[in-house]
Amino acid sequence: MPNLTGYLNQIFFAVLPYAVFLNFFVFTIHRYRSEAFTYSSLSSQFLENREHFWGIAPLHFGIITVLAGHFVAFLIPRQILWWNSRPLRLYVLEVTGLIFALVALLGVLGSIVRRLTNPKVQQVTTFADWVVEVVLLVQLTSGTYIAVFHPWGSSWFAASMAPYLWSLVKFAPDTSFLATLPFTLKLHLLNFYVLVGIFPFTRLVHILVAPNPYFWRKPQVVRWYSRPKEAVQ
Into how many domains does the chain fold? Predict the structure, then answer.
C-alpha cells in the first residue's frame, strides 16, 4: 500500500500538473486563434438581474480574493510565516480568508440555484457549465472545510505547499512536501488541477479577456435575437 500511495502521488502531483498546464496553454491559445468569439461568458444578466448579481458578484469577489491570497503565499512564503508569528495577525489572516471563501461558496451555490430554477437560464446552460459548477463547488467546499477543520492554513501552506509548488516551477517535482498534509487538502489540490485542465473548453476563458472595470462599469444593454422555431423548420 505505501508503494501504491507513492506511485499515485507521483502521477497526481508530479506528472498531472505538467499535463494539465500544457493542455491549458495549448488549447487556450488554439481556441483564441481559431474561435476568438467564444472568449465570452455569454452573459445571462439580461435574463434576471437580481439573481445574476447575488450569484455572480459574490463568486467573483470571493474567488479573486482567495486566489490572490494563495498567490501571495506562494510568492512570499517566508514573509507570510513572519506575519503569522504574531497570533493576532494570524487570526486576522485566517478569518479574512474564511470569510471570502464562504462568500465565494455562497456565490457558486447561488449560481447553481439560478441554473436549476430559472427556465431562461436553463436554455443557455451547457453540459460544460454544469461541469464547471460541480468542480467549483468541490473546490470551494473542500477549501472551506480545510479552513475550518485544519486551521492555520496560511502557515502550513507557506511551509509545505509553497515549496512543493516551487519544485514544480523548477521542474524538479518533490511530492514529499505533501506527505503530512491531510487527504482533504490533496483532494483540493487535485480538483484544482482538474479545473485547470477543463479551463480551455469552458466559459472560464472569459477571465483572460474580461475588462477589470467589470465590477463597477455602467449597466450594459444586451439584445438576444433568435429565429422562431417555425422559421428554422
Answer: 1
